[in-house]
Amino acid sequence: MTSVSIDAAINAKWAEGHSSYSPGTTEELALIGIDLLVKELGIEAAQHFINQVFERYPIGQAEQPQ
Predict the structure, then answer these.
(1) Residue 52: helix, strand or coil by DSSP?
(2) CA 64 to chain centre
(3) Are 11 and 20 in contact (CB under 8 A)?
(4) Cβ atoms 28, 6 nearer than 8 A
(5) CA 66 to CA 61: how far, in whole Å?
(6) Judging by beta carbons within 10 Å of its beta carbon (0-12, 13-18, 19+), is residue 52 exposed, middle or buried?
(7) pLDDT in tens, 1-28
(8) What is the dihedral of CA 59, 60, 64, 65, to 10 degrees?
(9) Which structural domain range is residue 14 located in?
(10) How sure is the predictor about 61, in pLDDT bands with cuts at 50, 70 and 90?
(11) What is the widest separation between alpha-carbon atoms in the chain?
(12) What is the DSSP letter of 17?
């Protein structure tokens, strides 16, 4: 498995406020993305979107580093 480190500054704004994030790992980045999807789409639509993404990766398929 590949180890990935992230150096990013994310500033998200919406009508009710804003947030700033500095993820350092893929897990942190995923949590931020999911949180923002839920804020934007709502829980059910965000889950549907995420399920569509996971359909690209059949169970048992090992992703090869590029």
Answers:
(1) helix
(2) 20
(3) yes
(4) yes
(5) 15
(6) exposed
(7) 678 889 999 999 988 899 999 999 999 9
(8) 70
(9) 1-66
(10) low
(11) 41
(12) E
